[in-house]
Design brief:
Number of strands: 8
Radius of gyration: 15 Å
Oligomer: single chain
Distance between the termini: 26 Å
Helix content: 25-40%
Structural class: alpha+beta
Shape: globular
Number of helices: 5
Largest sheet: 5 strands, antiparallel
Length: 177
């Protein structure tokens, strides 16, 4: 996988070489407070294992994935962008596809999440022919809520139907016809 935007490269994670950059994401509680079990990966080994899990999980769903967001001008991985099956309450595929992002705090507020997500929405709608793409977040994650709104996603309200029953805000964007 390789997509380019004006400032970013979206590509497969390379667990061995990307681990130092990924620690700045998954070793920071400002990021992990919004992700699943909130666990921190503060060692090279732990973050390599996380990145490998992302690659392994994505391999089961052709066309979908969990990719590195890299700044073209510095070749630094600053985040993750994903397009993966959205798990249901029992953490099984719900039949919906989710877009999501995790960026290191130093990269917040620069429009990188929105830029990467627009490229991935385009991939999902045009290349993969998905009819709809969903996003979820904790209700007080204002940064992600703002990105979802900038992407033109529709707020479907609160839901506990995904990720093991967490109470999450659910958004959706449908393919233009």
């Amino acid at each position: 996988m390789q997509l380019e935007t004006s400032r970013l490269l979206i590509r497969d994670w390379q667990p061995e070489s990307d681990a130092p950059d990924a620690i700045a994401i998954y070793g920071d509680p400002q990021v992990t407070q919004w992700i699943g079990d909130k666990s921190l990966d503060t060692t090279v080994e732990a973050v390599q294992a996380r990145l490998q899990r992302y690659r392994d999980r994505a391999a089961a769903f052709p066309g979908l994935g969990c990719w590195a967001i890299v700044q073209q001008d510095s070749d630094t991985a600053i985040g993750t962008i994903l397009l993966m099956p959205l798990p249901d309450r029992d953490n099984q595929p719900s039949g919906k596809v989710e877009i999501g992002w995790h960026l290191r705090p130093a990269s917040w507020g620069h429009g990188y999440a929105t830029e990467a997500a627009r490229a991935i929405l385009q991939l999902g709608f045009t290349t993969l022919d998905l009819p709809a793409i969903y996003a979820v977040t904790l209700p007080d994650n204002d940064r992600s809520l703002n990105v979802m709104r900038r992407l033109g996603m529709t707020d479907l309200g609160m839901s506990d139907d995904h990720y093991g029953g967490y109470h999450l805000r659910l958004f959706c964007r449908t393919r233009a016809v």
